[in-house]
Amino acid sequence: MSEGFFSRGFRSRRKPSDESGRLPPGQYLERGFPVLSAGPTPHTPLANWDFSIVGEVDQPKRWSWDEFHALPRETVTKDIHCVTKWSKFDTHWEGVSLDTLLAQVESSASYVIAFSDGGYSTNLPLDEVLGGQAWVVDTYEGQPLSPQHGGPARLLVPHLYFWKSAKWVRGLRLVAEDEPGFWESLGYNNHGDPWKEERYQGD
Amino acid sequence: MERRTLPGRLTWQLGEVVTTQPETARTKSITLIVPNWMGHQAGQHVDVRLTAADGYQAERSYSIASPPEEAPRVTLTVERLDDGEVSPYLTEELRVGDKLELRGPIGGYFVWEAQMGGPLLLVAGGSGIVPLMAMLRHRAAAGGSVATRLLDSSRSYADIIYRDELDRLVKNTTMLEVVHTLTRAQPPGWTGYHRRIDPEMLREVAWSSDQRPLTFICGPTPFVETAAASLVTLGHDPARIKTERFGPTGEA
Amino acid sequence: MMENKLDGNAAAGTLQEIFPFEMTLAQVTCTGCGTTNVIGATAAYMHGMGTIVRCPVCDTVLIRVVHARGRYWLDMRGVRVLEISVEA
């Protein structure tokens, strides 16, 4: 199997350079913004777009694009960390906090499943998307979020690996029992904390 | 069809570089001897893996440029991508005598053997010519007379990979036509196509649909999708069109 | 569009780490639309997290593969039937 083989003269470009301890273990700093897609890029017209909160709630709640834009908005600057080991510092986003959205429903659920156009899903404990930890964002670096990066709107949960920040998000389903999402059901860690290097199941 | 042994689970092998040969300013052919090479078909590819001293690994796929008749010599033609991770190493650092880890051959779907007949339509975008060149070299080695047309899209005259060899193949074999289109720059006096491929160009160059050619299209994803869609619009049977997308950047 | 979409051919390397057969010629019947295609003719999305193979007709996810920590995770819910030729 070529044990111990290495390619003469090949050096990895990806040097982890930990400035001030902002890089979680095993990550490197990336200047670009890699696009990882698991399927064709959805192109939902804004006239057809809505965001819903459904499941174990008193009343399902739905916002059209205009109604979503009428909600209080925040600008956030965050570091983001992909499980494929790249991190980006100081990314700038604008959108609506999940605190604002979830305040509109009553629920005794403990988990949320974020669901997206194209069929993607990811699961999170409810208490990890409240308290200023999560947003639905539609603006990146001052520009409307491009489709390849999840536009018109994506979830942003920067304290977890970036696969949890579901692109093309269309809503949250609140549930009593946790349900592993697209990657969580295929070997990735159910939680995904980059500071504990929770990349895969069993980590 | 000749029976082949089961491929078995793919394992990594070490090949040794025996020659390197620049093709254009940005591309280089690398010939390896791979002991225990099980043979391949024209159109197949290998996965190449580089390992740094700290254990970091990078993997990419490259089409085999050499025909099956040259086994156990295996030639890859690699285009250096400016922000690539693997291609700069292969085109600038790798030397004769170095070992390269690879596995393959892979991909029995995108292959052509002389006994499959034709007419054969090959549509290449830039470095997408590589697996199609393996087919043309195999065709020549097999005493090729299958009616074949190649439409080859390149940025400029200097960027045409295998340009001289293509000219020789046209001269020295029968029933082969090669049409070039140069999309960014043309030499003085150029009378050929000078635009990106489109349905009109394919209508003029391709076999008519009632001749039911076997078609192989290879290159960057947008190129492949334009070519395939155009041929289907012209009435070609999608089942006789095979595609190999290289991805948006051309590095598979 | 900067999608990492390739032909099913590109997924053959990964699939042939698991299955000791010529997988680009294996036929998959889609649970979404019922069409049968050789894997070489499907759409493959491949990146650092894993490999996703989709139906070329309806985009239904046919096969998902992750290779991590010495394990393979293989989901083939989208495939009603996988037909593999033992003779190459």
Question: Any overview of this molecule?
Answer:
- The complex is a heterotrimer of chains A (203), B (252) and C (88).
- With 203 residues, chain A is mainly β.
- Chain A is 5% helix and 30% strand.
- In chain A, strands 1, 4, 5, 8, 9 and 10 form a 6-stranded mixed β-sheet that branches. In chain A, strands 3-2-11-6-7 form a 5-stranded mixed β-sheet.
- In chain A, a hairpin with a 4-residue loop joins strand 4 and strand 5 (86-97).
- The two termini of chain A are 26 Å apart.
- Chain B is of the alpha/beta class and 252 residues long.
- Chain B has 2 domains: 13-106, Elongation Factor Tu (Ef-tu), domain 3; 114-245, Rossmann fold, CATH 3.40.50.
- In chain B, helix 3 links the parallel strand 8 and strand 9 (176-182).
- Chain C is mostly beta strands and 88 residues long.
- Helix content of chain C is 8%, strand content 43%.
- Chain C has a 5-stranded antiparallel β-sheet with strand order 1-4-5-6-7, covered by helices on one side. Chain C has a 3-stranded antiparallel β-sheet with strand order 3-2-8, with no helix packed on it.
- The longest helix of chain C is centred in the first third of the chain and has 7 residues, at 12-18.
- Chain C is globular, with a radius of gyration of 12 Å.
- Chain C starts with a strand and ends in a 5-residue tail after the last strand.
- The mean pLDDT of chain C is 93.
- Chains in contact: A-B, A-C, B-C.
- The interface between B and C is medium-sized, with 27 and 28 residues.
Structure, briefly:
Chain B has 252 residues and is α/β, with parallel strands linked by helices. Chain B contains five helices and eleven strands, in the order βββββαββαβαβαβαβ. Chain B folds into two domains: 13-106, Translation factors (Elongation Factor Tu (Ef-tu), domain 3, Beta Barrel), CATH 2.40.30.10; 114-245, Rossmann fold, CATH 3.40.50.
Total count of strands of chain C: 8
Q: How much helix, percentage-wise, in residues of chain C?
A: under 10%
Biggest β-sheet of chain A, characterized? 6 strands, mixed
- In what order do the strands lie side by side in the largest sheet of chain C? 1-4-5-6-7
CATH classification class of chain A? Alpha Beta
Q: What's the mean pLDDT score of chain A?
A: 94
**What is the CATH superfamily of chain A?**
Oxidoreductase, molybdopterin-binding domain
Series of secondary-structure elements of chain C, N-terminal to C-terminal: EHEEEEEEE
Beta-strand percentage range of chain C = 35-45%
State the share of residues found in helices of chain A, binned by percent: under 10%
Shape of chain A: globular
